[in-house]
Amino acid sequence: MTATTSDIERAAGLLRDGGLVALPTETVYGLGANAEDPTAVAQIFQVKGRPPSHPLIVHIAGAEHLHAWVEEVPATARLLAERFWPGPLTLVLRRGSRVPLEATGGLETVAVRVPDHPVALALLSAFGGGVTAPSANRFGSVSPTTADHVRAELGDAVDFVLDGGPCQVGVESTIVDVTGGRPTILRPGGVTREDLEAVLGGPVAVPSTSHVRVPGQHPSHYAPRARVALVESEKVVAEAELAQEQGHQVGVFLPHSLAGASVKAHAVVALPGSTAAYAHGLYGYLRELDERGCDLIVASLPAEKGLGLAIANRLRRAAGPRASA
Ligand code: TXA
Ligand code: MG
Asked: Is 5-200 assigned to CATH 3.30.70.1660?
């Protein structure tokens, strides 16, 4: 059921009172709080189980408000905001004094974005301020792309869940640091590197390992309960069948190039041909294979261009070494 005007009023009131509201965006659902309320912001970290040093994204209603949240708006930031907002692009800029250090994990920079979702935009307008919102999942696990995912994962820990239907993009925003010389992608996401480079008229940097505190860059993140094994696409069927024979409950991400192949495994997800459809479905597929009782997911990486860069990034993180319990 999509949020009504009175749901939005109620959510805006809860934010004003220091509450937590889950909100739909075009990427994933966020767990929102008043960005200027350090107590509410601290509550987000508590509910997510997220270390307080990991910074949050401030969501605002439009590019025209950006200057209020940052120390300065460099020309590059203005250009990217004009072209991609509202949309799945987050800009890292120098922090304005309005942003509490609790929201930035103590950093002197702040991440800002304008989400492209009517419910999120209506909430931001009704509320009137900035909303810090990480993905509405427990730290390290798979981001929610439906309101049901949020309810299943966070339950009563959130005061209200605004339902805006399934998230269209399905993977998080692209984070671009524009504080330095060359713009740098800190996390690939819904806006592609190619689109950024076309607008900027030059290359953007994509460091393989980031020194910035980006929790999405921890080895194991975006992870389902099942272990994820990445193999070459031609080996997906053979590896899956071998593991199934060895006693695993295997879930398979069957590449589109192998569509129709039969696989003796516990559960099979037939991947779509387009990367947009793959990104849209990705977190749902991981959740589905968990729900179907898989303990191992066998997948391959897509080509790392366009949205494939973000999908491959998330699959690598999902397959990364896990912290021991
Ligand atoms: O699509 C998205 O970005 C979603 C929706 C809800 O907007 N949000 C999201 O938030 O993915 P979260 O908290 O799960 O991831 C935010 C990322 C983290 O990796 C964080 O480290 C990074 O943004 N970040 C935030 N502030 C930063 C800063 N000042 N410098 C570098 N990275 C920052
Ligand atoms: Mg997240």
From this structure: no
